Amino acid sequence: MSRVNLSLRDEQLRELMDDPDCDPVRLEATLRRFHRVNRLISGWDQVYRRRLRPLLTGLHRPARVLDLGSGGGDVVTRLAHLAWRDGLQVHWTGADPDPRAHAAALGAQEQHTQDQLPEEQRVEESAQVRFLCADADALLRQGESFDVVISNHVLHHLDAPGLLDFSHASRQLCTGTVLHSDIARSRLAYSLYAVGITPLAPGTFLRTDGLRSIRRSYRREELSAALGAEWTVTSPAAFRLIAEAPGLG
Ligand SMILES: C[S@@+](CC[C@H](N)C(=O)[O-])C[C@H]1O[C@@H](n2cnc3c(N)ncnc32)[C@H](O)[C@@H]1O
């Protein structure tokens, strides 16, 4: 097998899940399994403790948080759980323009309400998250506004104009802080993922799309240049980037 070139972003690669005609069964299995992958690699528990919780507690009122491009909804659901555990009042929204992702998020939420959790926790958590099938422009037209806007693994899916539209619209929707989290492209990330994803991959697009994601992802200085001077891009953990900017709303 020839060695994959990771020195440059491969923006031409298309992920299987981005094909509107992809196998719906495998897509649903992929979206449902994102929660395992995200818990392992995305580092949102740490971002919550270090960045999000201080922002939310600093408001001294119930906060409104949007996860834009929320996919199967696991990141926003996990954050709702962490905030609920901390006694914080937050109105969580997960929005995704893809109806297939929206349906998967609603399905996972329905499943969550049936999980073997103490009833109080089940009701509290699921009531805090609403899922919308919408992109940023639709939310702006509806007059939505949020204290914090986040995303996970969306930036690398977008082409250059799409990245600028998405990042700008996310700031327009936000009165506080925008945090977009994504993979940092590296040879080691690629090699570790190729091995580590093996037990989770059967029946899903996780292997092919995860490796393509890494090839499409940015290095810190590339993302910084692509987003422009208003954004600060940092690496909060190995193989991760966070782009942060103040809201414009
Ligand atoms: C790899 S999935 C990530 C899903 C989820 N955030 C996660 O981490 O599991 C990328 C998601 O971004 C969504 N997406 C793509 N372009 C978007 C856009 N312009 N605005 C909002 N969401 C978008 C897709 O529909 C897809 O659900």
UniProtKB/TrEMBL annotation:
Keywords: Methyltransferase, S-adenosyl-L-methionine, Transferase
SUPFAM superfamilies linked to this entry: S-adenosyl-L-methionine-dependent methyltransferases
One Gene Ontology biological process: methylation
CDD domains according to UniProt: AdoMet_MTases
Region of interest called Disordered, as start-end residue ranges on this chain: 99-120
Keyword Transferase among record annotations: yes
NCBIfam families given in the database record: PRK06202.1
PANTHER family assigned to the protein according to its UniProt record, in alphabetical order: METHYLTRANSFERASE, UBIQUINONE BIOSYNTHESIS O-METHYLTRANSFERASE, MITOCHONDRIAL
Protein name: 2-polyprenyl-3-methyl-5-hydroxy-6-metoxy-1, 4-benzoquinol methylase
Organism per entry: Nesterenkonia sandarakina
